[in-house]
Write a structure and sequence with these properties.
Number of domains: 1
Number of helices: 3
Number of strands: 0
Distance between the termini: 67 Å
Strand content: under 5%
Structural class: mainly alpha
Largest sheet: none
Helix content: over 70%
Length: 77
């Protein structure tokens, strides 16, 4: 019973990780981040789950700062 529960948990983690990858490819940083955080909630000590969450946060920040930079350039011109 315990072995089966662990196997199902690993399948769930694999599915969530695949979802994170797909959302990243589609350019959906908010959904990507939400899925990455779900992975962390499923297995908080798993390093790859945390790595998936942190680049997503960087992408959201980078995207918003690049929009501000573009706007600042347009105003300064």
């Amino acid at each position: 019973m315990l072995f089966e529960r662990e196997r199902l948990n690993q399948l769930r983690l694999y599915a969530v990780d695949s979802l994170v990858d797909e959302l990243t490819r589609q350019g959906s940083p908010a959904l990507d981040l939400e899925a990455a955080h779900a992975s962390v909630r499923i297995e908080p000590l798993r390093e790859s789950a945390h790595r998936a969450a942190h680049p997503s946060e960087d992408n959201v920040v980078a995207g918003s700062s690049s929009r501000r930079f573009t706007h600042s350039d347009a105003v300064g011109s």
